[in-house]
Amino acid sequence: MKSSLKFINAKYLLLNLAAGIYFFVAIGNEARAQKIEIGAGLGGLNYKGDISPSLRLRFFKPAGSVFFRYNPNQAVSLRAELMGGIIGADDKHSKDPFQRARNMSFTSRIFEGSAVAEYNFLNFQERRFAVNWSPYLFGGIGYSTFNPSPQVGNYKTSTFILPYGVGIKYQVRRPWNIGIEYGARKTYSDYLDNLGGDAVNTDKLQQGDPSLKDNYYYLRLSVTYTFYKIVCP
Fold it and tell me: Rounded to two decimals, what is the model's pTM?
């Protein structure tokens, strides 16, 4: 019950953070044209940690997100995003004899809020009739909550994250855009898979590598709608 309340409180904190970021960017830059996008994405999460030391396609699980993007100029975009999904892995699919003998598995819901900056290589901008697309890099900061099942021990089920990655955006037809993005989330927790940190017992098979932090990865397709607002001088 206590863990559920902490999870709910963290959600409200992330929602308030996203609302504050939106208000800040919406009232700025009033002296010229503003371009704000709202969007949604669907894709999958993957995980790397003690139970899956490397990324494996079989462990991709569903995820989705909503976000808004503010474009102060052609080269830079600012984005705030809320994402939810599932991660999981199973030792039985490993080729490592130790992992097969351990035979552990987990699933965990992930809820994440993040704020990132994007750098557009091709100066992404409005063009009515020309092809308009650009690859981009992004990086920023965020906060993530999780609830591994089964959960053994009393540990913190939230962590700051550093999201970073690459993507491509394409303006299909004003005001609609599509995109594809792949990003990593560096975490500061070893408990996403319920296996790590301090040992919970003396059984070596039930212990993870405390030096290996858990990370997860988000691949998504997105659709955005751009609002064009011209402020008269």
Answer: 0.80
Domains, in order of start, for the chain: 2-229 (2.40.160.20)
Go through the chain and tell me how many residues it has. Answer: 233
Does the pLDDT at position 110 exceed 60? yes
100-105 long-range Cβ contacts below 8 angstroms, 24+ apart: 101/205, 102/205, 102/206, 104/51, 104/195, 104/206, 105/51
Backbone angles phi, psi at 7, to 5 degrees: -65, -40
| In the chain, beta strands by DSSP E | 34-48, 61-70, 76-90, 105-120, 133-149, 158-173, 176-187, 215-229
Rg (the chain; Cα; Å): 20
- The owner of tokens 């609002």 is 227
What mean pLDDT, rounded, does the chain reach? 83
Q: How far apart are CA 52 and CA 214, in angstroms?
A: 10
Nearest-CA neighbor of 137 among 187, 181, 178?
A: 181
- More confident of the two residues 162 and 171: 162
**Could you count the other beta carbons within 10 Å of the beta carbon of residue 69?**
23
Whether the pLDDT of residue 220 is over 80: the answer is yes
